[in-house]
Amino acid sequence: MTFNASGIDLHAHTTASDGTDSPAELIGLAADLGLSAIAVTDHDTVAGLEQAKEAAALRNIGFVPGVELSVEDDRGRFHMLGYLFDLHDSRLNETLQSLRASRAARNTQMAEKMRELGLPVTMDDVIAEAGDGGEVIARPHFARALMKKGLVSSVADAFDRYLATGKPLYMPKEVLSPKDAIAMLHAAGGVAVMAHPGLIPLSEEALAERVASLAADDGLDGIEAYYSQHSEEQTGRFLEIAGINGLIVTGGSDYHGTVKPHVSLGIVYQGRAAAPELLTRMQQRRAASLSAA
After folding, report:
1. Residues 6 or more apart whose Cβ sits within 8 Å of residue 75
2. How far apart are CA 102 and CA 250, in angstroms?
3. What is the pTM of this model?
4. How many helical (H) and strand (E) elements, i.e. helices and strands, does the chain have?
5. pLDDT single digits (tens) 100-141
C-alpha cells in the first residue's frame, strides 16, 4: 500500500476498548484531518479492526492493525504496542480473550469494592459507559460512571481518588510477560513496540538497560519515541536508544476521544503528525522478520 506525504498517527483508541469514538468515527476523523495512515490500537482486543479497515478503504486512508497490551515481569510493567499482525491469528485471539476474561473478573471485584465503599455506582452503570461496541471494560469507564454520579469532577480526579495503583478501587489484572507478548505478536506476523517509554517509572539508565535487554534477548522491534506527551529532551534520548539497539521508531498521539480532551488525534510531535517514513520502516522490519523466519 502506498501512502501520501501527509502525516500519520500510530496510536489511537476506539469504543472497542476505552476510547469514545467508534472505529468508523475514528477513521473518519483521521481522514478529515488529512492523515495518510492511522493505527487502531485498542487495549487487549482486535474487535474494532475490521470495522476500521472497511471505513479506511472507503475514505482512502491507510489502515494499520494494532493492539496495546499491558506487560510485566520482575523488572516492572509497561505497555506494548503490536502492529501489522494477522487479525485472525488463533493464538493471538485466544490470548486476548483470556486477558479480557481476567479484566472482567477484576471489574466484578471493583464493582464490589464500590458497593462496600457506599458509592452509588453499579456495574450496569459502568457497562453503559462502554456503549454497545465496547468489548473491553476498563478503568476509564469506571471513571466516567463516577463522574456521571457527581462523585468526581473529572476522569483524572477519579483516578487520583479511586482508580490509580494503590487507590481504594484499584485491582490488578492478568498480564503477559514482555517475552511472551513479543513472541505472540511475532508468531502472528506482527512487530512489537514499547509504548510511551517516557511514562515508564524508570531512571534514564535503567530504561536504557531495559530496552537493550528486550531488544537483545526477546526480539523487541521498536520504541514509541515520538509521543504526544514526551518532551523534546525525552524524544531525543529515545531516538538515541533506538539507534544504539537497532530498533525502529514509531509515533502516536494516544488519542482516546473526549475521555482525554488534552490529546488530539494526529498531534504527535512538535504540534504535527508523525512522519510516514516511520510506517515504511515498520513495514520493512516486518518483511525482514518474515523472510528470516
Report:
1. 210, 213
2. 29
3. 0.87
4. 10, 7
5. 988 888 888 999 999 999 999 999 998 888 776 667 788 888
**Domain boundaries of the chain, sorted by first residue:** 8-95+174-292, 96-163
What angle do helix axes 204-213 and 232-244 make, rounded to 10 degrees?
30
The three three-digit cell numbers of residue 232, written as one number: 523534546
Tell me which residue of 40, 39, 47 sits closest to 132, measured CA to CA: 47
| Residue listed under C-alpha cell 494503590 | 166
The residues, ordered by sequence, that sit 6+ positions from 83 with a Cβ below 8 Å of its Cβ are 10, 39, 41, 64, 65, 66, 190, 191, 193, 250, 282, 286
CATH of 8-95+174-292, one of 3.20.20.140, 3.30.70.120, 1.20.140.10, 1.10.10.10: 3.20.20.140
pLDDT (tens digit, 9 = 90+) per residue, 162-197? 998 899 998 888 899 999 999 999 999 999 999 999
